[in-house]
Amino acid sequence: MDIRVLTLDIVIFILMGISVLSMVRVVIGPTSEDRMIGLNLVLAQISAILVLIAVKYNRSIYLDVALVYAILGFIGILAIARHAASREDKE
Amino acid sequence: MTETILILLIILGILSLEFKDLLNAVICLAIFSLLCSLLFYYLHAPDVAIAEAAVGAGVATVIFVLTINKTRRKEEVEEEE
Q: For residue B68, which residues of chain A lie inside 8 Å, CB to CB?
C-alpha cells in the first residue's frame, strides 16, 4: 500500500472521530446555540474530509462537492444565527 | 466508514423526530443531509452528492428556519387565549 494513501486514510479516520465527538455536543447540548456551534464544527470537519477524499482519489470533480458545501453551509448557519438573534429580541 | 455513517444517520433521524424545539430538529436535519451527502460521496456518486449538498444545506435549512421565524409555538398561542 502506498504510504500517501495510508496517511490520508489515517487522517480521514481521525477527522471522522473528531466530528463524531462534535456530534455529541449537538445531541446533548442544552441550548439551541450549543447545537448551532456543533453544526458549524461538524460542517467544517466534514468539508475537510471531502477535500482529503478528493486528494485520495485524484479526481477534480470530487472537489466541487466540498466547494458547494462550504458556500451553502455558510448560508444555512447565517439563517439559523439570525433566527436565534430575533428570538432573543422577543424574549 | 460506510457503516459508521449509516449508524449516525439513524441516530440523527430519530433525534430530529423526537426534539420538541423545531430549531433543534432543523439543525439535526442539516447534519443528516451533510452525512447523507458524505455517504453518496463514498459510494462514488459525486454528482448526487452535489445535489444533496445544495438542497440539504442551503435551500431546505433556510426555508425551514424562515418558516419557524414566521410561525409561533403552540404554547404561546394557548397562553394568549
A: 83
Question: What's the gap in Å between the CA of B13 and the closest CA on chain A?
Answer: 12
Of the candidates A59, A79, A67, the residue with the CA atom closest to the CA atom of residue B27: A79
Indicate whether this complex's ipTM tops 0.85: no
Q: Does B61 touch chain A (CB under 8 A)?
A: yes
CA A88/CA A75 separation, integer angstroms: 20
Domain residue spans of chain B: 2-70
- pLDDT tens, residue by residue, B25-72: 888 888 888 889 889 888 888 888 888 888 887 788 888 888 888 888
Are the CB atoms for B31 and A39 separated by under 8 Å? yes
Residues B54, A69: contact at Cβ < 8 Å? no
Q: What sign does the dihedral A27-A81-A83-B63 (CA atoms) show?
A: negative
